[in-house]
Each structure stands twice: as structure tokens, then as C-alpha cells.
Fold histidine kinase.
Amino acid sequence: KKQDIIPILKGIIESFKNYATENKQTIYITHSSNQIYIDTDRDIFEKMIINLISNAIKYSKSTGDIHITVKEYKHSVSISVADSGIGIAPADIDNIFKRYYQVDRKRSVSGTGIGLAIVNEFIELHNGNVTVQSTPGKGSVFELSFPLVEDSVKSNTNIVPYALNKQEPIDPNK
Ligand code: ATP
Ligand code: MG
């Protein structure tokens, strides 16, 4: 199912409004165009994004803004969620996508360590991937990469109709 993701993302951000303003954090979204499509199930897509945003809020000790960036590449669409929170040590990076793994159980912020395992399973279902870049004490960037949906309008622009008997190519816009 082709989903127009920018309005969906804005709706999710809206739903975090109270939570984030209580924490004095602002969630920003930047996108390379207004209509960006992903082949996904809306509920599943929302669950992935909500998990990443709630982690960004939870692990940034109520300070620092959150930046969501959506970019289209030639063969993929990337959605990143960046925070300026506590960060993740290199030794933990490989483990955080495992079920029930939490870096610091004792300091335990709420949760069961399942969020990123779910994100990882869902992105695999999409034939996409998730990556993380993080610096302890500085923050983290989680990036989801989805295969690009073939947009029928875009792909048609390469097909230029041409009539052999005429002097000029047919203008495809007429
Ligand atoms: P749950 O998502 O089930 O409520 P959780 O947030 O602890 O619990 P995950 O979302 O799977 O579980 O994250 C696993 C661990 O990875 C977290 O416990 C935390 O230590 C670390 N982590 C995840 N996101 C971030 C982040 N944005 N900044 C710093 N650490 C993070
Ligand atoms: Mg979580």
C-alpha cells in the first residue's frame, strides 16, 4: 500500500506535542518534497516512527530538540530521527536491536527493551534497513531506509512518444 508519509509524520509529531512541550523539547521535521511515498502499512509505519521518537525523548533527559529528516534518494527514502541525548557507547550499538536489551537497566527509565527489536523486524519486512550513529554524551541518529516506490508519474517522464511520420516529436504534455 502506497502511503503519503509527510502528513502521517506530521500527525505523529502532533500526537507528541504535549509530551514534548512538557519536556521543553521541540520536534522538527524537514523533508525534501511534500509528497513522498513508501510502500507500507500505516499502523506498522507509525509504530516504527513512534518507537524512535519516544526513545529520542526518553533518552535525552528532557533537553534538546528532536529533528526528523526525510530525504529521497535515487533508490530509497530515508527517515532519520536525531536527538541530542545521552548517546550509546560503541560496545552497546550491536545489542540495542535485540529483544529486551537495555543499556542501563538499573538507571531504568521505563520500558522493556522491545521497541528497537520491533523497529528492526518491521524494517526487514520492508526490505529496508535501520542504521544508528551515536556519540555518548552528544546524541544519536537513527535512520530508516525504505526502498523507493516506483511513482507512475515520475517513471512516465522518461517515455517520450514519437511518431515516425511527423517532423517533430509529439509533445507529451498536449
Ligand atoms: P521499550 O522501547 O520497550 O519501551 P526501551 O526504550 O528500553 O524500552 P528499545 O527502544 O528497544 O527499548 O531500546 C533499547 C535500548 O537502547 C534502550 O534501553 C537504551 O539503552 C538504548 N537506546 C535506544 N534509543 C536510544 C536513544 N535515542 N538514545 C540513547 N539510547 C538509546
Ligand atoms: Mg524504546
Helices lie at 5-15, 17-22, 42-58, 90-93, 115-125, 152-156. The chain is about 30% helix and 25% strand. Strands lie at 2-4, 27-31, 37-39, 66-72, 76-83, 129-135, 139-147. The chain has a mean pLDDT of 86.
